[in-house]
Amino acid sequence: MDCTWSPDGGAALTLTAPQTLEGIRAEVSADGARVVYEDTAVGFESLAGGRLAPMALPYLLGSGWYEGYISACGMENGLLRMTCLDGYGEEELAVDTWLDTQSGQPCRCEISYQGQTLLTAEISAFAMNRGNNENTEKNLGGGVSG
């Protein structure tokens, strides 16, 4: 599966395997989701009281990193584990991410709701791209990086 996420546009994922599902594209944002591919439809069961579907994982991961806050961080099995909380009260989701300590790249993630793990994913070939007008001063309040 290939996934992309942006704070403005939400997430898009394209299935690359198995061959029978190859090319199906899902787009997920705060406004909802849609699945696109000729006449093929894919059904996804809702989780977390109807607030979460498996195809929303890339959107929730990006949103948790971008809009959530870090509630815990520490080493686990040679990886850095970071927990971000996104939302409040009944709407709160926990986004756990394990990062490689050498590269800083995310290796895997879990999305939890009310203490129950609902979605997990292994992450490979991760890339972070800046938008046209993004820099550390704008996004982090620091000086422009060199």
Structure description:
With 146 residues, the protein is mostly beta strands. It has one domain (2-127). Helices cover 11% and strands 40% of the residues. It has helices at 57-67, 136-140; strands spanning 2-6, 10-14, 25-29, 32-36, 69-76, 79-86, 93-100, 106-113, 116-122. The strands form two sheets. A five-stranded antiparallel sheet has the order 5-6-7-8-9, covered by helices on one side. A four-stranded antiparallel sheet has the order 1-2-3-4, with helices on one face. The model has no long low-confidence stretch (mean pLDDT 78).
In total, how many domains does the architecture comprise?
1
Rounded average pLDDT: 78
Number of strands: 9
Strand fraction: 35-45%
| Largest sheet geometry | 5 strands, antiparallel
- Work out the helicity level: 10-25%
Estimated radius of gyration: 16 Å
Distance between the termini: 33 Å
Coarse structural class: mainly beta
N-to-C SSE string, H for helix and E for strand: EEEEHEEEEEH
Tally of helical runs? 2
Flag low-confidence runs. none
The dominant shape is: globular
Major sheet: arrangement of strands:
5-6-7-8-9
